[in-house]
Amino acid sequence: MDATELLVSERTAADTPGSEVSAADRVLQVLAVLACAGRPLSASELMQGTGLPRSSLYRQLARLKRFGFVADSGALYAPGPLGLQLARGFDDGSHLVHVARPVLVQLSQQTQESAGLLVAANGQAVCLDMVESPLSLRCSFDKGSSVPLKVGASAKCVLAYLPAVQREALLNQHYGEGTPARAEAAAELQELRTQGYITTVGQVDAGVWGCSVPVFASGRRAVAALSLMAPQQRVQHQQAQLVQATLAAAARISRSLAG
Fold first, then answer.
1. For residues 128 and 87, what is the distance between their CA atoms, to the nearest angstrom?
2. CATH code for 94-258?
3. How far is C-alpha 181 from the geometric centre of its chain's CA atoms?
4. Domain segments of the chain as ranges
5. CB-CB contact of 189 with 180 (8 Å)
6. How far apart are the first and last CA of the chain?
7. Most buried among 103, 109, 164, 167, using CB within 10 Å?
8. Global pTM?
9. How far apart are CA 128 and CA 227, in angstroms?
10. How would CATH label the architecture of 3-85?
């Protein structure tokens, strides 16, 4: 299930016409679907992603365009210029990014591979920050891009540390309740929580090795995943060292956040 489907599934009985709360919800649904899409969307795609009727969708788009959150070119809609200002404000003001950034740089320099910081949002693993490998052959994940909480080391690490109710619901949606695939996925997440990290190969992109480790704030509350990414062929004989480096880096971030 992708982010737009999750947004539709999370609409509640409180979402009734004329309600101030529901009006705000509808605006945010449109903005969230546009943010997750990674490309301009048509009105039909936005209707499908948000579950809103056409008349309501156009009202929300008009509001968002008026304030600069949405821009349109013909029949397509995309995040507007105010979205860029929000992103810059997040970069400047995020305590998590501020604390993690020097550790990401150090980890990338130490390993010569790409290091990223990801969090959960709307059923996706979203990249908050990325330091790319200095080598010409490298793997990376663009800042602001996202993947479903299903495959890949980063997504699985984020999923494993969600609150149990959210995690179980996502497993049911991805694999079906009571299926062997769901049981296998749940067991993998339990193993991740037990050993404190996960490695995968080629689950998102062919030939890419990834290691992901949870980052904790005070009270052992998981707030992000620290991930290291590299071409599989380059790291096949040094994976243990790279895992240890990633574990140590995540521990440094966690200590700073907890302090």
1. 10
2. 3.30.450.40
3. 23
4. 3-85, 94-258
5. no
6. 37
7. 103
8. 0.70
9. 11
10. Orthogonal Bundle (1.10)
The DSSP code sequence of the chain is --HHHHHHHT--TT--TT-HHHHHHHHHHHHHHHHHHSS-EEHHHHHHHH---HHHHHHHHHHHHHTTSEEEETTEEEE-HHHHHHHHHHHHH-HHHHHHHHHHHHHHHHHSSEEEEEEEETTEEEEEEEE--SSSS-----TT-EEETTSSHHHHHHHHTS-HHHHHHHHHHHH-TT-HHHHHHHHHHHHHHHHT-EEEESSSSTTEEEEEEEEEEGGGEEEEEEEEEEEHHHHTT-HHHHHHHHHHHHHHHHHHHH-
Instruction: Give me the tens of pLDDT residue by residue for the chain, a chain 259 residues long.
Output: 444 444 434 443 334 444 444 778 888 888 888 877 778 899 999 999 888 999 889 989 988 888 888 888 878 988 888 776 676 665 554 889 999 999 999 999 999 999 999 999 878 898 999 999 999 888 877 888 888 999 999 999 999 999 999 999 999 999 999 999 999 999 999 999 999 999 999 888 889 999 999 999 988 889 999 999 999 999 989 999 999 999 999 999 999 998 7
- Identify the residue whose tokens are 């810059």: 88
Looking at residue 248, its amino acid is: A
With contact defined as beta carbons under 8 Å apart, do 56 and 19 qualify? Answer: no
Q: Can you give the C-alpha Rg of the chain in angstroms?
A: 19
As a whole number of angstroms, the distance between CA 104 and CA 74 comes to 41
Stated length of the chain = 259
- Identify the residue whose tokens are 């992103």: 87
User: Which residues sit opposite 23 in a β-bridge?
Assistant: none
Residue written as tokens 């971030």? 253
